[in-house]
Amino acid sequence: MTSPTPSVPPARRRLDATDLARVAVFAAIVAVLGLPGGLSVFGSVPITAQTLGVMLAGAILGPWLGALSMAVLLALVAVGLPLLSGGTGGIGVFVGPSAGYLFGWVAGALVIGLIVHAGNRRPVWWRTLLGMVVGGILVVYAFGVPVQALVTRLPLDTTAALSLVFIPGDLVKAVLATAIVMTLVRAYPRAFRRTWGAARGAAPVEEVAPEPVEPRVP
């Protein structure tokens, strides 16, 4: 009786210099998007362009590197670097009204990457837009609204209703991020290194060198 062939476990991905550089680049992109500052609504949480960077990080880097890039950004903010909207930073921001939204960036980037690259497949527009809305808006709000309500001591339903003012701008950012991602898919697929196209236990398609073709002898 022949024993069943053991399944080959999927290859583990290790962080290399390119991965770390990409993580640093997207952390920097989110920081740069905060330079113009934000529009404060009801004197609490500002409307900024930084969530656009969160959406792009999750969609382009994938779930784990996208979440790591946001965690790196928040770690730099915690040690005092002024990387948030309007040049704010320091440990104090993590006990303010926007603290939940900041932690939501990490979870949001993770969820975006999981949806956009679901099944390790090439991104398509509808799944990309779905990822932006679910991860970049709903997940971020799920973290942000309760913490904002706790800090401001407003009822949760009141805080949620006040947060509706952010929705139109976030939807615009979701559509813009989707357009950017789909443009990169067509024009520069190498931007998505290690995020799709890998068969179980194999290297990603774009990283596999083509086999040499031997010349035929007449």
Structural features, described:
The protein has one domain: Arp2/3 complex 21 kDa subunit ARPC3. The protein has a two-stranded antiparallel sheet with strand order 1-2. It is mainly α. The chain is built from seven helices and two strands; from the N terminus they run H-E-E-H-H-H-H-H-H. The chain is 55% helix and 2% strand. The protein is globular and about 45 Å long.
Topology (elements, then pairings):
Layout: H1 17-33, E1 39-40, E2 46-47, H2 50-61, H3 63-78, H4 99-116, H5 125-152, H6 156-163, H7 167-187
Antiparallel strand pairs: 1-2
Helix pairs in contact: 1-2, 1-3, 2-3, 2-4, 2-5, 2-7, 3-4, 4-5, 5-6, 5-7
Helix tally? 7
Helices and strands, in order, run as: HEEHHHHHH
* Terminal CA distance: 48 Å
**What is the spatial order of strands in the main beta sheet?**
1-2
Mean pLDDT: 84
Total beta-strand segments: 2
Structure, briefly:
The chain is mainly α. It is built from seven helices and two strands.
Name the descriptors.
218 residues; mainly alpha; Arp2/3 complex 21 kDa subunit ARPC3; two-stranded antiparallel sheet
